[in-house]
Amino acid sequence: MLTAEDKKLVQQVWEKVSGHQEDVGAETLTRMFAAYPQTKTYFPHFDLNPGSDQVRGHGKKVVAALTNAVKNLDNMSQALSELSNLHAYNLRVDPPGFSSQLLAQCLQVVLAVHLGKDYTPETHSAVDKFMSAVAAVLAEKYR
Amino acid sequence: MVHWSAEEKQLISSVWGKVNVEECGAEALARLLIVYPWTQRFFSNFGNLSSPTAIVGNPKVRAHGKKVLTSFGEAVKNLDNIKGTYSKLSELHCEKLHVDPENFRLLGDILVIVLASHFGRDFTPACQCAWQKLVGVVAHALARRYH
């Protein structure tokens, strides 16, 4: 799925946001909760106001997991195995095919906001494919 | 009928007011063809679509992108009657063009990303929210007359 060129582009983009990871995570989630209110149903126990510590903390977790995936592009299934179990059996978030599209869309918007023109069509394509691959791995254990 | 708050209307029109329809339209369509290459199936007579560079530089892609986004402007001008505005176009996309409506959703999401890259921080979460709603409503209206 991901070509060598795609992998390079994903790694490059990730390098550009390293150092801002917490912001990227928080902003992605904030946008997701704003644009797709149905995603809030998974966080009834959170304070979801923008700037909330819980949103920041969770955003940081999400980006850390994605960073791990970026470091293991050749081996995502194994690298994300624990997370796959967690999402399938504990969290039971609506299968990643659906909800990750919403998360992926918001992550891409955040990257586009920060990178402007540098978020080229090729980079956009690579990140889109990467997020699809992550979603597929997370969905592996669902049924 | 879709309900738009005053704030949503304001966010939509203030962004639209700053959009270069030709540039953004060309970019959105090019990205659709690059990020989701299967969409090229609808444009077999567009000439060279063999690489991202070819697609971005393709004059037919640019022209058609402009056409598509210009039509989008009709939705912005007629927020209270998007269904009616796209009635004929919906029939066209079904009966003549045979486009799977899923593609409208893909293009809508890409348009949002293009706007984000152009407007940066000014494309706030509230802006994105209003625009995701708008592209969703447009996609729905375009699919409405399918049979």
TrEMBL record, chain A:
GO terms for cellular component: blood microparticle; haptoglobin-hemoglobin complex; hemoglobin complex. PROSITE patterns: GLOBIN. GO terms for biological process: hydrogen peroxide catabolic process. One of its GO terms (molecular function) is oxygen carrier activity. Transmembrane segments: none annotated. The keyword Transport applies. Residues 1-143 form the Globin domain. Keywords: Heme, Iron, Metal-binding, Oxygen transport, Transport. Heterotetramer of two alpha-D chains and two beta chains. PANTHER family: HEMOGLOBIN FAMILY MEMBER (PTHR11442), HEMOGLOBIN SUBUNIT ZETA (PTHR11442:SF41). Belongs to the globin family. Involved in oxygen transport from the lung to the various peripheral tissues. This is HBAD protein. It comes from Mionectes macconnelli (McConnell's flycatcher). The gene is Hbad.
UniProtKB/TrEMBL annotation, chain B:
One of its GO terms (molecular function) is oxygen carrier activity. Pfam families: Globin (PF00042). GO terms for cellular component: blood microparticle; haptoglobin-hemoglobin complex; hemoglobin complex. InterPro entries: Globin (IPR000971), Globin-like_sf (IPR009050), Globin/Proto (IPR012292), Hemoglobin_b (IPR002337), Hemoglobin_oxygen_transport (IPR050056). The keyword Metal-binding applies. PROSITE patterns: GLOBIN (PS01033). SUPFAM superfamilies: Globin-like (SSF46458). Keywords: Heme, Iron, Metal-binding, Oxygen transport, Transport. GO terms for biological process: hydrogen peroxide catabolic process. Residues 3-147 form the Globin domain. Heterotetramer of two alpha chains and two beta chains. Involved in oxygen transport from the lung to the various peripheral tissues. PANTHER family: HEMOGLOBIN FAMILY MEMBER, HEMOGLOBIN SUBUNIT EPSILON. Belongs to the globin family. This is Hemoglobin subunit beta. The lineage of its organism: Eukaryota, Metazoa, Chordata, Craniata, Vertebrata. The gene is Hbe.
